[in-house]
Amino acid sequence: MNIAKAILLKLISALLFALMSALVRWLGETIPVGQVVFFRSAWAILPVVVIYAWRRELMAAVRTGRPLGHLGRGLISMTGMFLNFAALARLPLVDATAIGFAAPLITVALAALFLGERVRVYRWSAVAVGFAGVIVMLWPYLDLARLVSGSAVTTVGAFLALAGAFTNAGSVIQTRRLTDTETTSSIVLYFSLFCALAGAATLPFAWVTPTGAQLAALIATGLLGGIAHLLLTESYRFAPASVVAPFDYTAMLWAFVLGYAMFGEVPTLYVYVGSAIVAGAGLFVIWRERQLGLKRAREAEGPPTGA
User: Fold this and answer.
1) Over 60: is that where the pLDDT of 5 sits?
2) Does an H or E element contain 10, and which?
């Protein structure tokens, strides 16, 4: 246990992911989504291989007894990456980030449906409140007349971001299944491989020769994403998830800053209110998970001796 180290790693990973999203947002104006997915995933493999080779865990990353499980997670994650990157190309950075934070709330519902986890009224209430916050954020984009006419680029982006949140939650559920038998290194490596292959499959149909600056940004998305993924994984080695997870929401702050600095984007009142509701609901779910974890630990220890 090293809580300070865990929190520091988590904060750095949130910053790196935010920087990666900002670069994806910038590239999305000119570079096809599949091309961005390919560079993001292929270059992410480099830091993963280097780190695990240095730690002599590379064979543990390659070895797997559940290739179909990795394939299922890869397909879900690949779909989510395409959706999230397509949303970033159409939405202000903070809007896409805020809508994406619906994923932890969706995970609660999916865990009840597919993992048989017992979800009580408190967490269901938090999920309902969180989705109310999502609706607040989506409200400005619910212009169906513009959507039908084909002119509502941001409306399409908002629904892509919401769909991406669902696939991100699905990826978390599949990851929970894999962690019963698979190492963290193998999950990270095969995720990157599958997404890189999916992105490569699109290159013959949609390729734009990047400028020097665009090529640097494309490579940076992969390196930032790969390093951030490793730091995120490491953070959970040093502290319980309930301690580390709330610091995910610092990504919202970085999205505000980077969106304004790089694109001159100023969040609307809907985003401020909606993101506050979603973050509050998410933090309540995390707090509730921690309380339940402490309760289970006490029950497992049994009554104090000598009582």
Assistant:
1) yes
2) helix 3-27
